[in-house]
Design brief:
Blueprint: E1 2-3, H1 17-23, E2 28-34, H2 44-47, H3 50-56, E3 66-71, H4 72-80, E4 107-113, H5 116-126, E5 138-148, E6 153-157, E7 162-169, E8 172-177, H6 209-212, E9 222-226, E10 230-234, E11 239-244, E12 248-256
Helix pairs in contact: 1-4
């Protein structure tokens, strides 16, 4: 983990959930929607095909989050209602909105490509480290902004590329497991709708992860506590678990490593 440039010195560093809401309408964003604070990503196409779900052994599709595109204003309204300070803000309509996928309460996490005006801020704050220069690293995913409420969890999963994560606002806790330990995390197979997700979880709500996944027992993790301005870099196939300890805004950036 490294300390990035002070976020207060750039416009990106002043992005909070309420400031995003107040500047809406911003642009179309992608919202990840869950019936709980557990945002378990699932292939959207798989959720639309019950036969594929059944053949893959998914017994409860609602346990996975859903994905929807919507204006930023609507996304922030759904995420922040009622507003954290008890009041309104900007052009956002804070009236209740009907649920999109789940009966009862829904929880929303925002992800969006950065507006062009903020890309320079992102480049300046992350200040690509020297080993990137001339080393053959290639950008495979443009900088993305992630914003979510306190308590939001991204369960244990892994990516196929190198990743930067910069904490812009709020605090996050992350747990990492090296790529060579993946078999002990019981990942779903590549053909499964929950591919790249692990069955084992460091915070198993049932409390019996060691019994069901014995190879996971006593497996140590690397832990990072991230505050505003902190950044962490992790290689491909490093499994990671993320928990928002407060309303949180983060930036991610992915690169393909050299051969």
């Amino acid at each position: 983990m490294r300390q990035a440039s002070p976020p207060g010195s750039a416009s990106l560093g002043r992005l909070t959930l309420l400031s995003l809401a107040q500047r809406a309408p911003w642009q179309q964003v992608t919202a990840q929607i869950s019936s709980s604070f557990d945002f378990r990503f699932c292939d959207p196409a798989a959720l639309q095909t019950s036969g594929r779900l059944a053949s893959a052994g998914v017994s409860s599709a609602p346990s996975a989050s859903r994905v929807a595109a919507m204006p930023a204003a609507e996304c922030l309204t759904r995420m922040l209602h009622p507003p954290p300070d008890g009041g309104g803000g900007g052009d956002v309509n804070w009236d209740s909105t009907p649920p999109l996928f789940f009966e009862g309460e829904e929880f929303v996490y925002l992800k969006s490509a950065l507006p062009p005006a903020l890309r320079a801020d992102a480049e300046g704050m992350l200040a690509r480290p020297p080993f990137f220069r001339g080393a053959g690293f290639r950008e495979v995913q443009e900088p993305r902004l992630w914003a979510g409420p306190k308590g939001a969890v991204s369960p244990l999963h892994y990516d196929l590329d190198c990743s930067w994560l910069l904490q812009v606002q709020g605090e996050k806790r992350m747990l990492f497991f090296p790529a060579e330990e993946l078999p002990r995390l019981y990942p779903y197979p590549d053909a499964h709708p929950l591919r790249r997700r692990a069955r084992a979880c460091p915070t198993d709500p049932r409390g019996d992860a060691w019994g069901r996944y014995p190879l996971f027992r006593d497996l140590p993790a690397w832990e990072a506590s991230l505050g505003p301005g902190d950044a962490v870099f992790f290689p491909p196939r490093w499994a990671h678990y993320t928990e928002s300890l407060s309303p949180s805004t983060s930036l991610t950036w992915r690169f393909k490593p050299p051969p």
